[in-house]
Amino acid sequence: MKLKASASFVRNTLDVEQALDPIAQSNPDVIIMIGTPEPLSKFITLVKRNSTYSVNSQNISFAAVSFTETTSFINLLGPYAEDVITSQVVPHPQNTTLKIVRDYQNAQLTINATAPFTFSALEGYISGRLVVFALQQSQKSYGPLNRTAFLDSFYTAQNCYLSGLVVGAFCDCSGGYALYPPNKDVCFCNQGMSAVWVTQIKNGSVVDIPSAYYDWEGSCFGFISVHISQPIIFGGSGSFLLQQTSDLRTGVLTAFSEYNSRGGFNGRLLQLYSVDYNGSISSTMDYSLDTLMDDGTIMGFVALSGTSFVEYQYNKLLSTKLPLIGSFTSTPYLFNTFNKNIINMRPSVVDELSSIVFFLSNELLVMNRTGLVYENIGLGFNNVNTYQNICSTLGWTNTSYMLTGKNTQEVCDLMALSDLQAIIIATHDATLMASFINCFKPKNPNMIFVGLSQIDVVRLSSLLNSLSNIYLSSFSPQPSDASSQLANLFVNSLNLYFPGSVPTPIMIYGYVVGRVIYTVLTNMQDSKADVTPESFINSLYSVSSFSVGGVSLGPYISTGPSSCNTGLRTMSIGTVNSAGNFTTLKSMSHSTCLYMPSQITMPIVLIRSAKNANDAYAAGINQAISEINAKGGIQGRLIKLSNLENYGDSSLLRYHVYNASSYKTAICFIGFDRDNEDFIVEQSKGNQIPFIGTRSGSSKLRTPYNKNIINMRSSLVDGASAAAKTLYSDLKFTQVATIWQSNSSYWTEAKNGFHRYANEILKVNDIKDFTISDNYLSTISSYQGVIIFADFSISDVISVSINNTNPNVTIVTMYDNAVPTLLNSKSNFYVSMPFPESTIDSGYNEAYILTYIINNALSEVTTVNYTSLMDALYRIQVFNIDGYPLGPIGPECVAGTCSDYCDCNQMAHQANVISSKNTFTLSFSSCGITFPIITYTFPPFYIVLIVVLTLILIIIIITAILGALYYKINKVNLSNAPKTGYMVLAFTDVQNSTKLWSQLGTDMSKALSVHNKVLRNLIKKYKGYEVKTQGDSFMVAFEDPKKAVEWALHSQKDLLYAEWPPCVMQTFDCRIEWDEYESVLFRGPRVRMGLHYGYAERVYDVVTKRYDYFGNTVNCAARVESQAKGGQIYISEDLLDRVKNDIDMIDVEQYSCMLQETRLLSNNELNGLIGETFQLSQATSQASFDVVQQNQADLPNLDDLYAKPYLPNLPRDNKLNEAILYRLKGSFLLKGISGNVNLYEVMSENLVERDYDTKKSNHSSRRSSISAFESSNQQLSKYVMQKSDGPENVAQQHIQLHQMYRLLQADKKLGVRFSHVDGTSSLPLTPATPPVNNKDYMDGASPARRFSQTSPDVQSNESHVSINSADNLV
């Protein structure tokens, strides 16, 4: 330890202030005090309150040499006494485990039963006991008892034994008393006690520190230093705010405690000196490292935590020449360039992610599309950069987003939009990881998640809603892994030295670091080397390889091209159960120092999509693969089967093939089911990945020749021909019938092949054909043999039925990937097999043989890919696997080199008809059965020529017509699609469509048709391109930005006036809303729109035969649309800048100012209007309602007060006949888009008053209209009261009457009668006549009409209404 400063004060005074500044300037960790309690207590109080001390002054430790009773500190300091340490020269007076203390307490109780037990009293008791001991020794000498004899008794006895407490040895060599002094260095010693106890104040009491007991036995004053063993100190730094820092320290200290319990290094104990760098502030990082370096005694830095700390202090750490051991960070700083002083324990981020990618590709068959979410710390940033580099090396597509506790939902939604197979999560925070997974799982339950290493699996498992498809990586064992020797070893030590601590993976890592350190020290102790930083480093590289609890580290190599400073080189990936138990699925070790992406061995993948993925065919493939991989695979690469299940869904099959087409390691499609022949042929032309061994005999896969399709089986015609040969030639039957599944083109082809072979080869024409729906059982007994052409589920039932009817009839079925019921029980039951088989199974042998054929072909190539596979297959031509002859196959025929096997993609050259006892074979040397060429007698040449020319002309005309139609259709669909480059992409969506579907059902379907028709008509008008639709959402591309904006504006207008089904507008989300001028603002479904201008790439989809667009512009446009509400149009600033010069647009604020000026009327105009109204209302105040109604045409028109202003000089769009307005809506942080994006709303002037707050009531948007109406009434009422001499109620009646006039004037067609204005008599209220069409309904813009259509009172002719105020009117 280093003494940083010292200060003193005058004895017997309290003047301690002069000691404050020297001590404060040294910024100490501990202050040792010598003095009496009063001045020391004052000093402690001043330090605690003094601002000149560091921010950590409250954490300074105080240690005092015992001068008087320790309890004095408690009385003097109060709360500041907490944790004060005091040395003691006697044991704790309450420690009754010592006999001397028990004797003391018993003795004191006999003198004073109420006196407390104190250190001072115990010291006095021991002194008294020492006197008694000396007197007893003097008595034994039988000499005179005097001072000399009394003193000599101490040196004669040397050691005084007092109830188990040894006082002494007293020694005076000159007096001849000590013939055998205990130590030549202490030959003269008059000090009795050699033990020191240490106590600490805790919670207002003085307690022992059991570990701080020192007995300097054999020492005397002035010689203690020779017995003090300096500890071996390693420095650590980390943010104590982070749990991982605490876990690392606990792990290291557990290992250090083990070492110290064994005696340490020749008595020198291992210690960890940790400094808190208090977050990630650079100044506090500097302070923490400077504190460690200034200590001067540390051997090295151990288990530093925090990527930012290590990266920021990297150069300073290296300049110290001290070893940097086991930092808990995967920063590339520590791995990229070898430095002997850097001792890495954990793998690098490259190791971790490369291992995860290997696991994903080789074990889970994730081939391409992965995503990464990472925490906003150094660890996360290092991972995302490395991850992108790995994906770039492998040719994978990737998506990455930064994850914080606040944006989990946003990142979850963005990831859900990506078509990913797996997501890697880079965080040590179990809560953050669980919240993301729990958010994503409902969106895609089958998504694969892999969590980066050293997560707390127990906590994670308790937070997750589901544990399926969740994998975790780890470079050290999980504490819950009972199979791990290291985990068990650590947990036992942790319980011993830190009982109550909960083990974590990071603790185990810290434990490994500590164990390596003490292994090196043990080696140094054995070699008697001095302990220095340099010798420690040299010894570590000398040991080279380490093993901790069965886990290997190293070898560490300091020189040469193989130099390496990385220890742990094994990554484990496994799963966790609900109890938090971790199960390792795969451990990946590498011999090199760094596991680089280029070293990742990607599997060779066979792709299969089947109705039933877990069938015998898959078992056959997997058996062959396991045998091949056990021998090392192909060129060190494993073969894997991606076995996908489509449940017979053709769309799912297409999706599987589409996905697999992007896999760089996919070698072929294998074993596809029949009934997909057209799709296979289509894909084989546009996709270079070949289809091998499809389970179909259709001629579509054989003719015309397609080199990308290789058939292992013989064809349907071959199998049917073999059946015909068996029945007619081998069994010599003459009466044969067929039963045929007539609605299947597949079995129709087989039936026709049977007929042709029988007719043309065997010259048999008498064949009776039945369909499966015919009543064949009644006549089947008259036939010797029956062949069935039908699906297995049908043919098996038919064969059993025939056998039950007549067991003597010979039955032949065509093999359909299943084992028939009668095969082993009836000898006259046969199956026509499409490949050589001695026994029939459900495809196991077929798949097993085919896999080995692929393996044999790949074994002969240097570069493994689908092109080299096909070249090898056609080059080898003939195959023989376990006695099954297959081939030859041949490539495409070239003129002059054709043979029987050119243009041949069928391996089987025989078909077998098998029963339980017999096998009949039909072999053919060509690629399938060939039939003789039939010759005909042709008519004269000129007739043939005319017929041929006529047919050619007809074909040309038909082709031209079809070509023109095809061109016209595709020109309409694709001509407006912008090419790759800059364009506008627009997205639309109907607000609350899910709710509308649940409310409206089929009516919503009608509404959607109206919506689609409006948008598509305008897309065509403005030369846009409809990219795709999804539900009620449109994605549209425009080459011209001006047309894009005009399209959006025109769409909102046309949607407003569209012919929506009447019931649609009865829903809240499609209700009609008016502005204060009674103009319609909303009507029908609210559609939001978002548009963005930028660069996008156009890609042609061979499946949909349409163009699609990709790039950041697509994402940005979608995000812009998501910010808008129903009825709004949002555009990005990029688009606004692009169209400003092409479209006259006015800022909404400028428009509002112009509008306000127009609304102002002069006082004379206002008074004139009111006066005219008053005169008429006064003249008619006593008139009946009918009279008023007759005179309503003469009423003055007050609508001038409320009419919507028109600005004649405003620039207006020619198509809309309205001004186009815009306003800035704000700066938005869009999901997946870097930086903030300014978004603007554009609108036509008639829709500027739209209110997008959907939480308001039906009438809330008219509140401004009501306010204006009431304001005018107040003005009129004031005028009437001034002019009228009548009572107030008469004036009020005038006002009410005038209100009624305005109401009637608003809609003269309305069939409603109101009560008299005084409310005393009522007239029936007739419901308004329903509108004859949607336009009438929309035009009904007055409050009266709205009242008549929406009020629940208007349900019968007996309803009444009374209008007495503006509120009642509304």
UniProtKB/TrEMBL annotation:
- For bias type Polar residues, the affected ranges are 1347-1370
All residue ranges annotated as the Guanylate cyclase domain in the record: 984-1121
Q: Name one GO biological process term.
A: cyclic nucleotide biosynthetic process
This protein's record includes keyword ATP-binding? no
Transmembrane parts of this sequence:
941-967
UniProt keyword list: Membrane, Signal, Transmembrane, Transmembrane helix
Which Pfam families does this UniProt record tie to the protein?
Answer: Guanylate_cyc (PF00211), Peripla_BP_6 (PF13458)
Annotated spans, Disordered? 1319-1370
The record, for SMART domains, names: CYCc (SM00044)
Q: Which domain of life is it from?
A: Eukaryota
**Any idea what this protein is called?**
Adenylate cyclase
Look up and give the organism this protein is from. Answer: Acrasis kona
